[in-house]
Design a protein that fits this description.
Elements: E1 12-14, E2 24-26, E3 31-33, H1 39-64, H2 68-96, H3 117-121, E4 134-136, E5 144-146, E6 148-152, E7 158-164, E8 169-170, E9 176-178, E10 183-185, E11 190-192, E12 197-199, H4 204-231, H5 240-246, H6 248-277, H7 281-286, H8 300-308, E13 322-324, H9 335-344, H10 348-355, H11 374-393
Antiparallel strand pairs: 1-13, 2-3, 4-5, 6-7, 7-8, 9-10, 11-12
Helix pairs in contact: 1-2, 1-4, 1-6, 2-4, 4-6
Domain Palmitoyltransferase DHHC: 162-286
Enzyme class: transferase
Subcellular location: Membrane
């Protein structure tokens, strides 16, 4: 709700404005980025640079080549490069700017009788869990919550979930807390510095499309650059080396895409394996499902279908919803006694002005403190210090002097 001037009502803000995580919000909370969203610009430059170079080569060949065959080959390559580049940048933006599956945090820890069944089951009388694995409730010191608890997932498997001290909740299965974004994320995979965002339940699909498209683009530019060099062998006497020196831009693109393909290509292969086995990067490094049964593995076709063919779950947070701000604590002013003491320091004129609602503060000093001779007070204070020092040095009249002793005398 807005006021007549278009400003929010006092005491009300949108959720994204008071969000305790480290995310950055744009467009009124519609776009959600991580705290390191600046790396998105670097990733865009790394993707666009080889594409601009390849497009420049295609345009150059189209304008200066007299061969109709080369013109026919150049135009499809130019169009395909532009479309693939736009698709790759779109997947990058969709990965970086959407809610990855942030779990709403609680304002207080769960208590007995709350919706959390673990809180209702955990009491001080429980002795099955060691004391080091219990969490004390801030609102109720007599209530202890277990650090972990077991929950059942699909297929009858039982998995262990952990209590998050930051978000004050038991994390859903496969969720984890990201220390960079300061949020618990559903089906947490990892925090990707290249996209500046967590990879989780709601953006993993676009992340995989982004890295796979980037891999294909690297191979595409690599192959076209080699074909361009090979096509110039006829004009260089059939020498491949002369063709490479005659096409320096193609040579740079070959080296650049070769190095990049190893990075994004290896990442694509790794996530293809994770997707086919229904694992996340976090689970693969932490739990090692190859040594035990994976409770989420339903077979390769079903695992791949879960990523690409299932509906996108809605966000658990309404970041544009209005929320009430907590009232700030009232400052303690000393109570009525302090106010009465302040009034007693006022003179008759100030008291009359206070009763009439006027302000009377000559020099900002009450009447009882006005007219004092501060120079005379400092002079008297100095004389008192001198007298104290002289009295300290004077002999004590009640002290009896001790008679001098001679050799051989005994007390």
């Amino acid at each position: 709700m807005l006021t007549t001037m278009g400003e929010p009502e006092p005491g009300r803000r949108r959720l994204y404005q008071v969000w305790k995580g480290s995310n950055k919000f744009l467009c009124g909370g519609r776009l959600i980025f991580g705290p390191d969203a600046g790396s998105l610009f670097l990733s865009t430059v790394l993707i666009a640079s080889p594409l601009v170079g390849l497009c420049f080569q295609c345009v150059t060949k189209l304008n200066y080549s007299g061969s109709s065959e080369k013109q026919a080959l150049g135009m499809p390559a130019l169009v395909a490069t532009i479309l693939l580049g736009l698709a790759d940048l779109a997947f990058l933006f969709l990965t970086s700017s959407r809610d990855p599956g942030i779990v709403p945090r609680n304002a207080r820890s769960p208590e007995r009788g709350d919706d959390d069944p673990a809180a209702a089951a955990a009491t001080e009388d429980d002795v099955a869990t060691p004391s080091t694995e219990w969490v004390m409730s801030a609102a109720n010191p007599h209530l202890r919550l277990p650090r972990t608890r077991d929950v059942a997932v699909a297929g009858g498997h039982v998995v262990r979930v952990k209590y998050c001290d930051t978000c004050l909740l038991y994390r859903p299965p496969r969720a984890s807390h990201c220390s960079i974004c300061n949020n618990c994320v559903q089906k947490f995979d990892h925090h990707c510095p290249w996209v500046g965002q967590c990879i989780g339940l709601r953006n993993y699909r676009f992340f995989f499309l982004f890295i796979s498209t980037s891999t294909f683009l690297c191979l595409y530019v690599f192959v076209l650059s080699w074909l361009n060099i090979a096509a110039q062998r006829g004009s260089h006497g059939g020498s491949l080396l002369r063709s490479m020196t005659g096409e320096p831009l193609s040579l740079v693109l070959i080296v650049y895409t070769f190095v990049s393909a190893w990075f994004v290509g290896g990442l694509t292969v790794f996530h293809t394996y994770l997707m086919s086995t229904n694992q996340t990067t976090y689970e693969n490094f932490r739990y090692r499902y190859d040594k035990k049964e994976n409770p989420y593995d339903r077979g390769v076709p079903a695992n791949i279908s879960e990523v690409f063919c299932t509906g996108m779950p809605p966000s658990m947070n309404r970041f544009r919803a209005w929320v009430e701000l907590p009232e700030p604590p009232e400052a303690f002013d000393g109570g009525p006694l302090a106010s009465r003491n302040k009034i007693d320091l006022l003179g008759p004129d100030e008291k009359a002005d206070l009763e009439m609602g006027r302000h009377h503060h000559p020099g900002g000093v009450p009447a009882i403190l006005q007219g004092l001779h501060y120079a005379e007070m400092e002079k008297n204070s100095a004389s008192v210090h001198v007298k104290d020092r002289q009295s300290a040095e004077a002999p004590d009249p009640f002290m009896i002097p001790e008679a001098p002793r001679h050799d051989g005398e005994v007390e």
